[in-house]
Design a protein that fits this description.
With about 240 residues, this protein is mostly helical. Helices cover about 50% and strands about 10% of the residues. The protein is globular and about 60 Å long.
Length: about 240
């Protein structure tokens, strides 16, 4: 670091509310796979493994936070809230609040294409940062950071309380025949904690998928996803 200049990672850590003992772990979390292009293979790790870990960590953090905050809501509603809180757009907005884009290590082509401010790049890197905090500091550290940042749900939507009912009303309004229909298309995980995947369809070939710990929760998530594609929130107000 040239004399008189400050490390941008210092400012990022201050906004994040966590100082890494291992600064290389943070740099790895901020390194896109494209940054390694033209360099010695294996010499510079990228953030994909930490992103994988952070995706699961953020899902758990959001679930715990929402479980504590919304005591009267059922699993279906909590599933929708979680999807709004940790989807790509919401994570990218949080990354912008933290000034994460300026700290990214990306390839030249991505730099030229403005990738520093693209939702995908920002969300992936933020997931990796949370994965790195988990690796270094464990649950207490990552929970403190999450609660301090207090991530907001991406947008308030009028159908959030009952996405399946709202989708049914939308289908009736447009006189779509035999709509909506729900189909269980997958089941994964152990017997004591399965994850269900459901596909919902409406007339015209429109469809979306959702996941949940129960079939009902998966149907709710699928209906929410399809509503986001079919009807902007303002059209249902």
């Amino acid at each position: 670091m040239p004399e008189g200049k400050t490390d941008p990672l210092d400012a990022f850590e201050a906004r994040l509310g966590y100082v890494f003992r291992d600064r290389e772990l943070l740099r790895t979390a901020l390194t896109s796979p494209s940054f390694r292009a033209g360099r010695v293979v294996g010499a510079i790790p990228d953030n994909q493994r930490l992103e994988f870990l952070g995706d699961a960590v953020l899902g758990l953090l959001a679930a715990q936070s929402l479980y504590d905050r919304y005591l009267a809501e059922d699993e279906g509603n909590l599933t929708v809230r979680r999807s709004l809180q940790v989807n790509r757009g919401a994570l990218a907005n949080l990354a912008r609040r933290l000034g994460l884009g300026a700290c990214l290590r990306i390839g030249q082509r991505e730099e030229e294409n403005g990738a520093r401010d693209q939702d995908r790049m920002l969300a992936d890197a933020l997931e990796a940062v949370f994965g790195a905090i988990w690796r270094e500091g464990g649950w207490d550290a990552v929970w403190r950071v999450y609660r301090r940042l207090d991530p907001e749900e991406e947008e308030a939507v009028p159908w959030r309380g009952n996405p399946k009912g709202a989708l049914q009303e939308l289908a009736q309004r447009h006189a779509w025949p035999n709509s909506p229909t729900y189909e269980l298309i997958g089941r994964s995980g152990p017997d004591h904690g399965p994850v269900y995947t459901v596909r919902v369809r409406v007339a015209g070939g429109h469809e979306a998928e959702g996941e949940g710990r129960t079939k009902r929760a998966a149907e709710t998530a699928a209906a929410q996803a399809l509503l986001c594609r079919l009807a902007p929130p303002e059209s249902l107000v």
